[in-house]
């Protein structure tokens, strides 16, 4: 899976690790933006104490699962997870 790191020197791996950490930070910023778009205007449901909580959760999960934004959010989470896994692999090799 990460065969490209087997022949790298430690200095090169450190550089790659720094680049990957920067990418993860950028991915997290994009993730927060998408999260805000998914939650847009749902906070109004909190004014209805208990019923509002259930409506909020159901609408949020529907948006996250069935909309284009939800699909983008999932793919972004997958990319972030793979980058984090790659960073952990590099740390283990160092």
What do these coordinates show?
- The protein has helices spanning about 10-40, 50-65, 70-94.
- It is mostly helical.
- The protein has one domain.
- Helix 1 packs antiparallel against helix 3 and helix 2 packs across helix 3 (about 70-94).
- It is elongated and about 60 Å long.
- The model has no long low-confidence stretch (mean pLDDT about 85).
Counting DSSP H or I runs of 4 or more residues, the number of helices is: 3
Total beta-strand segments = 0
The main sheet comes to:
none
Supply Rg: 19 Å
Order of helices and strands: HHH
Shape: elongated
What's the average pLDDT?
A: 87
How large a portion of the residues is in β-strands, by DSSP E?
under 5%
What gap, in angstroms, lies between the N and C termini?
Answer: 17 Å
Class based on secondary structure composition and strand pairing: mainly alpha
Helicity range: over 70%
Total number of distinct structural domains: 1
Poorly predicted segments: none
Give the topology, please.
Blueprint: H1 10-38, H2 49-66, H3 68-93
Helix pairs in contact: 1-3, 2-3
For this entry, give a set of tags.
single chain, 94 residues, mainly alpha, 3 helices, elongated
Summarize the structure.
With 94 residues, the protein is mostly helical. The chain has helices at 10-38, 49-66, 68-93.
């Amino acid at each position: 899976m990460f065969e490209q790191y087997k022949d790298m020197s430690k200095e090169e791996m450190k550089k790659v690790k720094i680049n990957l950490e920067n990418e993860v930070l950028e991915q997290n910023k994009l993730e927060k933006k998408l999260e805000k778009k998914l939650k847009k205007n749902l906070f109004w449901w909190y004014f209805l104490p208990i019923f509002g909580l259930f409506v909020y959760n159901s609408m949020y999960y529907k948006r996250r699962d069935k909309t284009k934004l939800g699909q983008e959010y999932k793919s972004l989470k997958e990319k972030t997870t793979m980058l984090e896994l790659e960073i952990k692999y590099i740390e283990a090799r160092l």
